[in-house]
Amino acid sequence: MGGDWHASSSSSSPGTILPIAVVPIDFEEEVVAPIISSYNYHIRPLLDAIDRLRLLQVMKEGIQLPTIVVVGDQSSGKSSVLESLAGIHLPRGQGICTRVPLIMRLQNQDTTEPELFLEYSGKTVPVEEDHIADAISLATDEIAGSGKGISNTPLTLVVKKNGVPDLTMVDLPGITRVPVHGQPANIYEQVTEMIMEYIKPEESIILNVLSATVDFSTCESIRMSQQVDRRGQRTLAVVTKADKSPEGLLEKVSSNDVNIGLGYVCVRNRVGDESFEEARKEEEKLFETHPLLSKMDKSIVGIPVLAEMLVQVQANIISKCLPKIVRNIDEKLSANVKKLEKMPKILSTHAEAMSAFVQIIGSAKESLRKILLSGESDEYPDDKKMHGSARLVEMFDKFSNELRKCVENERTGDFLIEEINVLEEAKGIELPNFLSHSAFLRIHQGKIDRIKSMPIDCVEQTWEYIESVVIAILTRLSENYPQLKHATTRAAKSSISKMKEQSMNRVLEILQMERLTDYTCDPDYMSEWGKLLSQQQKFMGDLKFYHINSTTIEGWGTIQIGHLRENSETILQLAFDLKARMKAYWNIVLRRMVDTMALLLKFNVYNLVTKEMDEIFMELMAVDGGKSIERILEESPGVAGKRETLKSSIGLLRESKEIVAQITDRIASYGH
Ligand code: GDP
Ligand code: MG
């Protein structure tokens, strides 16, 4: 077995938070000691907890986990670095090999034989070390299809092996500018988007893999990490292929032109068919003996140093992030629990459906009562449309104003002409100075006919408004039950249209009644008529003076009289009297109409809220002897789906909470 660890220099460990036990190297015996320390003993449970959270996919709940993300341009040596750290073979070579995020969990385990697993699509598959490359390819094909496309569903590779560092890293597809044959045309955008998603969170440590053979500042991975971590505070660089390009490497890393905040580690990976032991020895030798490379400080060279640094960086970021994770889990959990509580209950029995139905009806009636009858607007404080009684008053005021202002009230042009014409037509064989009742009625009926569209429109608009309010309420209350919404709104519409027809008939009746009979007991009629008639003398007098063409009559204002002179005195007197009666009576008619309409509409609304709604609901309940209620209250698939999502999210967060609770207890117990 191979791939065990050399612990090289221990002198400088950046950002050490716990002491690291360094085991001396003993080349002679060919037994290399792994990096195992009290450090691992403390950090391991934390890492395990984070990894369990990762496996639960809490990231999907928007909870970021501390993660070491490996980025690098294509062929920079990413897979080789991971290989070196894990001591296993990974698919290496041309084209895109990593097509899905590969989560590598390295776990130090005290056994002779390494244990490898792949976790994906909810299964855990043991893998043999020799077949790891094939197994990864197969799993990748299963996740991302067998083409060359990429997917962001991760694949986890667990490596339990003696001597590996306890590390969890995510390897991402390499960045390619030009799609190779078979790759989607937007492969570059897809890959960069995925990388960004992983490196953006503050919780991510960016492990930037750079090849010594290139100018770092031209690396795409540097450009990307600088976008999210400008000062490089969470970026660590691994420089590969030190063996291929040793010239100027020391200068390159010490000048730090590309702002790497956490430092550089230069390495030499396995080349060709070397075993991992051979590779480690070659690397060791390279940095000991090479004329240029040996000048580099031992604290920045070699895979073991890299491992050590990563373990520390990981410990730092985990302990830094833990409180926030705990907080996030708590917040998300309680938010989701609240959301679930607010969701409608599942109605599994007839009794439950019935009680939900009764409750919805109760709420609907209560809302209608508040909105249309008592004028309470607490349910819709900001929705003016739903301030029902105010809107109804508004509509009614408009109606009564229009009625009062309409021209029928003030026909001052062609003064008395209509009256004279009608009187002429109504003439009978009788004494000439009797005022004909039929003439009065004819004029009166003409007036009624000319204004009748106003009360009709008023009824029309009022019902249209009431219907919109009723529908809005029913829609709100039954939004989770599409069938119920359908059934109630349909029933409400048909019953409202019935009620509207009734009140329309009533209004038409009122208009007919007004047409048929001229009657009032209101003393205003007599007094108003008297007032107008008292001016008849003055009017007749003014007509005698040929130079006077207009006169003022209180109640009618200034009127033209020139056109009346050819008429006989008798007919003029009769016409004046007729017009005076007409005016006095019309006032009464208008007032009566406004009052009656007000009472009628209020009465209709009252009936709707107190009686008609009940009938609508009773009717619904009676369908199929009430059996249909369950069907009517079947919730929409959307609601059911949302509830399921919330439930599973809550389950997951509870589990996560449990996991973090266990480790925080543990931390408390060792006095961290
Ligand atoms: P990736 O595309 O970033 O995953 O890169 P790979 O790990 O597949 O490496 C690309 C090529 O570089 C492979 O042929 C590796 O063998 C080679 N390579 C990686 N690291 C080193 C190194 O340190 N020295 C040498 N000489 N070759 C390396
Ligand atoms: Mg690779």
Automatic annotation (TrEMBL):
- Record keywords, A-Z: GTP-binding, Motor protein, Nucleotide-binding
Q: Which Pfam families match?
A: Dynamin_M, Dynamin_N, GED
Query: What Gene3D superfamilies does the annotation carry?
Result: Dynamin, middle domain, P-loop containing nucleotide triphosphate hydrolases
MF terms (GO), sorted A to Z: GTP binding; GTPase activity; microtubule binding
In which domain of life is the source organism classified? Eukaryota
Note the InterPro entries from the entry.
Dynamin, Dynamin_GTPase, Dynamin_N, Dynamin_stalk, G_DYNAMIN_dom, GED, GED_dom, P-loop_NTPase
Which Gene Ontology cellular component terms are annotated? cytoplasm; membrane; microtubule
Is Kinase found in the keyword set?
Answer: no
What range(s) does the GED domain occupy? 575-668
The name under which this protein is listed is: Dynamin-related protein 4C-like
Taxonomic source organism: Rubroshorea leprosula
